[in-house]
Design goal:
It is a single chain. The protein is built from 11 helices and 6 strands. The chain has 218 residues and is of the alpha/beta class. The chain has 2 domains: 2-119, 3-Layer(aba) Sandwich (Rossmann fold); 143-213, Winged helix-like DNA-binding domain superfamily/Winged helix DNA-binding domain (Arc Repressor Mutant, subunit A, Orthogonal Bundle). A 6-stranded parallel beta sheet has the order 2-1-3-4-5-6, with helices on both faces. It is globular, with a radius of gyration of 17 Å. Mean pLDDT is 84; it is low at 143-147. One of its GO terms (biological process) is regulation of DNA-templated transcription. Residues 150-215 form the HTH luxR-type domain. It holds the Pfam family GerE.
């Protein structure tokens, strides 16, 4: 059973998210939160698998809460309208496991939660394109990836790992990556983990931006 904390300050939106997740097989909403402080407390209290986190909330915003939770090993899936402001880029530095848009379909929301719970991380292709476009166009604030990837770290990547990083940069899941490269899904997951470790990155989102910065994505 995947246990989720839903953090969203708008009651109507939060109720809809809870209803969708609670009705999905294998997923249980462990707690609800109306702000970042409640989200952190609920995650610690329930020992949940992940937090579905809104960005702009009172008292403590979703980015500050994400930073706290990421340091304790709790995965956070950011829920945003994605207007490419400093809040969204702040989530990269904070170590978010992925991004969702608030107009996401119910089935896609459920699948995204399952993907993150499997430890894969998740970036919606539309989000990936907007993120990469912002970085390529110079719109991203300095340090949004949490610092540039050192050249010596990049040099440690094998040719296969560079291919894997390029696929992550396109927003491919482990399953899609495996199909693309003709490898098994567990092997794809292992490759992604090694790439993140070698480049000292905390999430697939940061890896996607690194791929753009290194010129590995179309």
């Amino acid at each position: 059973m995947i246990r989720v904390v839903v953090a969203e300050d708008q009651w109507a939106v939060r109720s809809g998210l809870v209803m969708i997740l609670d009705s999905a097989p294998g997923i249980e909403v462990a707690a609800e939160a109306a702000d970042g402080e409640q989200a952190v407390a609920a995650a610690r209290r329930t020992a949940c698998d992940l937090v579905l986190m809104d960005v702009r909330m009172p008292r403590k915003d979703g980015i500050a809460a994400t930073r706290e939770l990421a340091e304790t090993g709790v995965d956070v899936l950011i829920l945003t309208t994605f207007d490419l402001d400093e809040y969204v880029f702040g989530a990269l530095r904070a170590g978010a496991a992925g991004f969702l848009l608030k107009n996401i379909e119910a089935d896609d929301l459920v699948e995204s939660v399952r993907v993150v719970a499997r430890g894969e991380g998740m970036i919606a292709p539309a989000v990936t394109r907007r993120l990469i476009g912002a970085f390529a166009g110079g719109a991203a604030p300095a340090g949004a990836t949490g610092g540039g990837v050192p050249a010596e770290a990049v040099a440690e990547l094998t040719p296969r790992e560079r291919e894997v990083l390029a696929c992550v940069g396109e927003g491919l899941s482990n399953r899609q990556l495996a199909r693309r490269l003709g490898i098994t899904e567990p092997t794809a997951k292992t490759h992604v983990s090694r790439v993140l470790a070698k480049l000292d990155l905390r999430s697939r989102v940061q890896a996607a931006i690194a791929a753009q910065e290194l010129g590995l994505t179309p």
